[in-house]
Design brief:
The complex is a heterodimer of chains A (412) and B (261). With 412 residues, chain A is an alpha/beta fold. Chain A contains 15 helices and seven strands. Chain B is α/β, with parallel strands linked by helices. Chain B has a six-stranded mixed beta sheet with strand order 6-7-8-3-9-10, with helices on both faces. Chain B has a four-stranded antiparallel beta sheet with strand order 2-1-4-5, covered by helices on one side. In chain B, a hairpin with a 2-residue loop joins strand 9 and strand 10 (217-222). The longest helix of chain B has 16 residues, at 174-189. Classes of the chains: A alpha/beta (412), B alpha/beta (261).
């Protein structure tokens, strides 16, 4: 064991790193940048206003309850320190309130039952609360905001069970003090079910994200080898055109992505029970998540995203000389898309500037499309989904052009 | 079409020609005004040290790069032309084969890009490079010499009438080198024009004609015998130095390295 030789090896590594600016940046700068981005996403997120649509089926008593709730609601806009403002709007009856939630213009619908007055007099009020159900995190936040509001308003609810003045009721000495009713919240959802967990929301999205990630890495490395190994030079000395090369790559890796997505979709949607064997209990293979919409449409979305990724890989391979440098693109290209594209945080809650960034990331549109298809059951007739698919197709076409431009040859 | 530097006696259309060909990279002129006219069915040696512009000249001639000025033609077609590439075979300096594909798959791939669907063409080059028994071996598992042979076969699989070989025998053992030159001779006899770039002077005598390339210019062109006579020496390397000394810029010679450097 020689210290001199050990030190020589160490010196060689340091000397190499000193010239490898990208690796230095990867080690020193990138973690800070990504952590800062994460902090920005979490801390900077807009304290959401919880928009409540109330469907009043309880007539005058309902109106009084709405007034009580409004009085107790934290003001919108002035929200700070993490408390969310609550905006209450009377929209008509129960179905009308549900429609608001379904359309996304309100996060929560509260339906005041026709028997509100009687129930309040009886000491037990049940409010039906309806959320979308497509994002448990957002839903539980909205329901929690509502619960806080109800608790804050509870002290004023005593008058609900008392018939309105002028209806012959006499309030005077000897009358029993108004009963403070217990308020129970019954949570319903438009899509999925109230006990859907985060996995139900994540799994469809991961289909797209993983395809994007792996296809990008594989194409990037494969095309880098083509450039470095001299085979690209040799290809260009044949009558093949740049577009033919790029489309061929798209087809080849598209097939690979197809195999991956088909298997992932089967694993996500299917569930094969495995009986208990000896000490191993009963279990199952697959997540058994149900898709509300067409799995084929979801597949098309992922494929469009993958074609974009193939060509992004070809494009970025221009800026790499080694396979390590392709891997170094992961924290730059893949991680920020994961943070900003709405996989973990809804895009509309991001700080304004990051929202703008999110809207130019192709993964954002794929995430939105996959949720629309698999959770809400949207089809191409829905404008939101149609827009997503159009954007993804456009991005794929743009990347194909970009990729073929980076293949340098003076003849097209 | 004729050019001042034509030495071949035949009057057919030249296989390769260039007129005032210039390629500048910023201030550096990698190819600095080259005129040439190469007759069909002969083997030409482009000789010069590393960095003299041989590879850039080949890339201009086959249209992989666009000249800053001047014109290159292959079989009468102005380059760059994608269609003309089907009549050109090109073996680049590196191995430029796919290590994860087998011998036969590599050949089939390049044959397909050249529009050759003929399975017999692949068998023919497999016989030529004597790798028929290894057709299913991944190229990564071949020895260095075998990979060079495969690379050569990929350039020849579509039977091109004009072939450019950039340093084809670098790292090739002597026995294989003899085999390569026997192939080249047979191809030339069948009418193929072959341009071999090399910085190894002792290969030069296997060529029909030599072009000395230095600093982006052709400083001499002729048969080995005529160049020796003109320079007044039996040694081609010395002849190269003499011609360099006579160069138009008249600068002192840079340290020209020995063969195989």
């Amino acid at each position: 064991m020689s210290l001199a030789r050990t030190l020589a090896v160490a010196r060689r590594i340091v000397a190499g790193f000193r010239r490898d600016h990208r690796s230095l940046a990867l080690v020193v700068v990138v973690p800070i940048v990504i952590t800062a981005l994460l902090a920005w996403v979490i801390r900077g997120s807009i304290p959401g206003t919880t928009r409540v649509a109330i469907g009043n089926q309880a007539g005058v008593t309902g109106d009084r309850m709405i007034a009580i709730l409004r009085a107790a609601a934290p003001p919108v806009g002035a929200a700070g320190g993490g408390t969310n403002g609550v905006e209450i709007e009377l929209v008509g009856d129960g179905p009308a309130a549900r429609d608001r939630v379904k359309a996304g213009s309100a996060q929560v619908a509260v339906i005041l039952p026709a028997d509100l007055a009687a129930a309040a007099a009886g000491g037990m009020v049940t409010l039906t609360v309806v959320t979308q159900g497509t994002d448990p995190a957002v839903d539980s936040q909205a329901v929690a905001a509502l619960q806080q509001l109800v608790i804050r308003a509870a002290g004023s609810m005593g008058s609900l069970g008392v018939p309105p003045a002028g209806a012959g009721a006499v309030v005077g000495p000897g009358t029993a003090a108004p009963v403070l009713p217990t308020i129970r919240i019954a949570h319903e959802t438009i899509f999925l079910s109230p006990d859907a967990d985060t996995l139900n929301v994540m799994a469809p999205v991961f289909l797209g994200y993983f395809a994007y990630f792996f296809v990008f890495i594989l194409t990037g490395i494969s095309f880098l080898r083509e450039r470095m190994g001299g085979t690209l030079e040799r290809l260009l000395a044949t009558p093949v055109s740049r577009l033919e090369i790029v489309l061929g790559y798209g087809l080849g890796f598209g097939l690979l992505a197809t195999v991956q997505v088909v298997l992932m979709t089967a694993f996500t949607l299917g569930r094969v029970p495995v009986p208990a064997i000896g000490p191993i209990g009963e279990w199952g293979v697959g997540l058994g998540i149900s898709s509300a919409g067409s799995p084929i449409l979801a597949f098309v979305v992922v494929l469009l995203l993958a074609i974009g990724a193939v060509n992004l890989g070809i494009f970025l391979s221009t800026f790499a000389r080694t396979e390590l440098q392709i891997v170094q693109f992961i924290p730059i290209v893949i991680v920020p898309q994961g943070l900003l594209s709405g996989i973990f945080w809804p895009v509309e809650r991001l700080p304004a500037l990051l929202q703008a960034v999110a809207h130019v990331l192709p993964v954002t549109y794929a995430v939105d499309a996959l949720r629309a298809i698999m959770l809400r059951g949207d089809g191409l007739g829905d404008p939101g989904l149609a827009l997503d698919v159009a954007v993804l197709a456009l991005v794929a076409a743009l990347f194909v052009m970009l990729a073929s431009l980076t293949i340098k040859r003076d003849i097209a | 079409m004729s050019s001042a530097t034509t030495t071949a006696s035949d009057t057919r259309q030249p296989a390769v020609s260039a007129r005032a060909l210039v390629k500048a990279f910023g201030l550096i002129r990698a190819v600095d005004g080259i005129d040439l006219s190469l007759a069909p069915g002969r083997i030409y040696g482009l000789l010069g040290p590393n960095g003299s512009g041989k590879t850039t000249l080949i890339r201009l001639l086959i249209g992989l790069a666009r000249p800053t000025s001047g014109e290159a033609r292959i079989l009468g077609t102005p380059m760059p032309s994608r269609a003309a590439l089907a009549r050109i075979g090109y073996m680049p300096q590196g191995e430029a084969i796919y290590p994860d594909l087998s011998v036969a798959e590599n050949l089939a791939f390049f044959a397909a890009l050249q529009g050759t669907r003929d399975g017999a063409a692949i068998e023919r080059v497999l016989d030529l490079i004597e790798l028929g028994g290894r057709r299913n071996t991944p190229a990564a598992n071949l020895s260095g010499g075998m990979r060079r042979r495969l690379s050569l076969a990929c350039a020849l699989v579509h039977q091109p009438p004009v072939v450019f070989l950039d340093e084809p025998t670098v790292g090739v053992d002597p026995a294989l080198r003899v085999q390569f030159w026997a192939h080249f001779r047979a191809l030339a006899a069948a009418g193929t024009t072959i341009v071999v770039a090399s910085h190894v002077m002792d290969e030069a005598d296997r060529c029909d004609e030599l072009l000395f390339v230095r600093a982006g210019q052709v400083i001499a062109h002729g048969t080995g015998a005529s160049l020796r006579a003109e320079a007044g020496t039996d040694d081609l390397e010395t002849a190269f130095l003499r011609f360099s000394g006579l160069g138009p810029d008249g600068q002192p010679l840079p340290g020209l390295t020995a063969s195989g450097s």
